[in-house]
Automatic annotation (TrEMBL):
Major subcellular location class: cytoplasm
List of residues binding Mg(2+) 1: 90, 109, 111
Entry binding sites for substrate: 112-115, 199
Gene: fbp
Record organism: Rhodopseudomonas telluris
Name this protein carries in UniProt: Fructose-1,6-bisphosphatase class 1
A Pfam family of this chain: FBPase
Binding site for Mg(2+) 2: 109, 112, 271
Domain Fructose-1-6-bisphosphatase class I N-terminal residue range list: 29-183
Length: 343
């Protein structure tokens, strides 16, 4: 594709069969809605968007912010001409049913990172498009069945990350023309990295393998990884994912021992499945720590799943620490916690 090519042109040439036309229509609808959402975010309090609670809660009990609700309404309205069987939204307790004969269904988080709105930080929209088979319950297949997935980052630029199952492309919104233009094609996650992202305030709640991994990073050049690491935590999944696509890194939101966090915080259908699809399509990895996220099938719309994603060398390392705890011991420094000599 040519640099600067528009998303619309890519979608026009995506294919002629009904399912591909439906995928193209859905991506186009989300892109169109994201232009409106981006303008709202850019106006903030001037458009009455304050990040204040909307006085309600979503299915998972999260307090709904004004922009959560407005973004969801915008996306639903944009879907009016898209042939979908069902919509699964973070902001809706139940599925929104469409045409049971339609070729696709869509799961989406209309506004990820909404606790960042009132602090003027990056937020986003995440989406996953799956095939629909008449007579089959929507969203009952593993994540590997996704047809397309991606996310919009409402940051200094508004950018849309997209995979249609053949690599990952990134488009940035040309605000004057109100159209997305290609800026990066066939994006690859750098295999090695010196950056990890985790909410370190949860250290005491983590399982041992996660502690072992973070301790290895904290040990730096003198430790088992023999290099110094940097840490990031933005509190916005889309921003972390975009950074990883840009310069590598690993993001962890693991299961932890807090009540309700036994499967982490992120939701499978509209957060970890789409992120996993994008990361694998970009040559990275996405795991729960014990299994591939794309092998998971949802038991319920708002089911959670742990997410460890990014540079494949780090995802593999973290999986090894989960499956073979002694791996941490084998690399501990001679004078380290598990070395020959206790200090
Ligand atoms: P909100 O949408 O409630 O702000 O949650 C954002 C999020 O789902 C994800 O975008 C962040 O990576 C993660 O939660 C941050 O979680 P902590 O607040 O527990 O660090």
């Amino acid at each position: 594709m040519d640099q600067g090519q528009t998303l619309s042109r890519l979608l026009e040439s995506y294919g002629t069969d009904p399912r591909k036309r439906a995928v193209a229509a859905a991506v186009g609808a989300i892109a169109g809605a994201s232009v409106e959402i981006s303008e709202l975010i850019g106006q903030g309090a001037l458009a009455g968007i304050t990040g204040a609670a909307h006085g309600s809660a979503n299915a998972d009990g999260d307090v709904q912010k004004d922009l959560d609700v407005k973004a969801d309404e915008t996306i639903i309205a944009a879907m009016k001409d898209v042939p979908y069987a069902a919509l699964a939204s973070e902001e809706s307790d139940t599925l929104m049913m469409g045409d049971p004969q339609a070729p696709i269904s869509i799961a989406y988080d209309p506004l990820d990172g909404s606790s960042n709105i009132d602090t003027n930080m990056t937020v986003g929209t995440i989406f996953s498009i799956i095939p629909n088979e008449p007579g089959v319950t929507p969203f009952s297949a593993p994540g590997s069945c996704q047809l397309a997935a991606g996310f919009v980052v409402y940051g200094p630029q508004t950018s849309l990350v997209l995979t249609l199952g053949d690599g990952v492309d990134i488009f940035t919104l040309d605000r004057k023309a109100k159209t997305y233009r290609l800026i990066r094609e066939r994006v690859k996650v750098p295999a090695d990295t010196a950056e990890y992202a985790i909410n370190a305030s949860n250290h005491r709640h983590w399982e041992q393998p996660v502690r072992d991994f973070v301790d290895e990073c904290l040990a730096g050049a003198d430790g088992p990884r023999a290099k110094d690491f940097n840490m990031r935590w933005i509190g916005s999944l889309v921003a972390e994912a975009y950074r990883i696509l840009t310069r590598g890194g690993v993001f962890l939101y693991p299961a932890d021992q807090r009540p309700g966090y036994g499967e982490g915080r992120l939701r499978l259908l509209y957060e970890t499945h789409p992120m996993a699809f994008v990361m694998e399509q970009a040559g990275g990895g996405a795991s729960t720590g014990r299994e591939r996220v794309l092998d998971l099938t949802a038991r319920a719309i708002h089911q959670r799943s742990p997410l460890i994603m990014g540079s494949i060398d780090k995802v593999n390392r973290i999986e090894l620490l989960h499956t073979d705890p002694s791996a941490a011991a084998r690399t501990a420094p001679l004078f380290g916690r598990r070395g020959l000599f206790r200090v």
